[in-house]
Specification:
Elements: E1 7-12, H1 17-28, E2 32-38, H2 50-54, E3 63-64, H3 67-72, E4 76-79, H4 83-96, E5 99-102, H5 109-118, E6 123-126, H6 132-147, E7 154-161, H7 171-184, E8 192-193, E9 208-214, E10 220-227, E11 232-239, H8 243-256, E12 262-264, H9 266-270
Parallel strand pairs: 1-2, 1-4, 2-3, 4-5, 5-6, 6-12, 7-9, 8-9
Antiparallel strand pairs: 7-10, 10-11
The structure holds NADPH dihydro-nicotinamide-adenine-dinucleotide phosphate and the ligand O=C(O)C1=N[C@H](C(=O)O)C[C@H](O)C1.
NADPH dihydro-nicotinamide-adenine-dinucleotide phosphate binds next to helix 1.
Amino acid sequence: MSETGDMGLVVVGAAGRMGQTLIRAIHTMPGARVAGAVERPGSPYLGKDAGELAGIGIINVPISDDPLPAFAKADGVLDFTAPAATVEFAGYAAQARIVHVIGTTGCSADDNAKIAAAARHATIVKSGNMSLGVNLLAVLVEQAARALDGDDFDIEILEMHHRHKVDAPSGTALLLGEAAAAGREIPLAGNDVRVRDGHTGVRKPGTIGFATLRGGSVVGDHSVVLAGTGERITLSHHAEDRAIFARGAVKAALWARAKKPGLYSMRDVLGLS
Ligand SMILES: NC(=O)C1=CN([C@@H]2O[C@H](COP(=O)(O)OP(=O)(O)OC[C@H]3O[C@@H](n4cnc5c(N)ncnc54)[C@H](OP(=O)(O)O)[C@@H]3O)[C@@H](O)[C@H]2O)C=CC1
Ligand SMILES: O=C(O)C1=N[C@H](C(=O)O)C[C@H](O)C1
């Protein structure tokens, strides 16, 4: 627990693209402080100061490969790592009964079931995108999908990310697909078309299509196209800086501190549910 009243946050994956952005965000946002920084055993960053690595100068938080003592003296964890690591961290957050903010994407149904089980004791906020803009976009997509009939308007979701991204479709594309499916009052599973190749036949009415682009340093671009006969609506979001995700994650942690254990979304945090 914090001695200052500020929420003590452990950043796991502290040397990663998001990890370093999170360290900088915590440093500038009131009400939170960096309580720990974790990387995997064998990481070349172990022992280095998390603040110095993130470019804000020494903050006296060395990067460790041992999450348990770090979690034991913290109020929350910010986790943008990888699915297997996130499942493990959710178990530790449940043991410590603290907040766990999960931005990691590419989790399987089995991973999500384990995270949901951990949420019996941890207060978990999980979202494929922590930005205000994308979560507002999801609300607009749901409204548009509800207003425009599935027989008249086809929904296609297009995303582009940097060359280092390992999962597809992006967590955000799936979040937007879920919003479109909710608007249409259908499940996304079974109505999604994730890949097209070769002789696909004509488009099946009511399906939700995905297209993935990878290249360069693109932070994250998403467009939802509602294509009718003779007209087309495109709803888009362009992330220009990872700071939007990091600020959203810190905001989620501060919000979750006062909440009971459970599994929450960024829409809950932002009051958009
Ligand atoms: N929800 C949202 O708003 C956003 C979500 N993301 C998601 O966040 C995740 C991370 O993205 P990004 O920062 O670009 O990726 P990076 O690869 O740059 O960072 C991930 C970091 O986590 C570390 N890590 C992996 N496994 C462990 C472990 N077991 N213990 C400790 N550290 C570990 C990695 O170490 P190593 O390199 O040694 O494997 C790496 O330093 C992705 O799933 C991405 O899609 C990204 C941006 C926004
Ligand atoms: O890997 C990334 O970089 C991002 N991942 C998230 C996703 O999968 O949607 C969020 C953001 O678009 C950046």
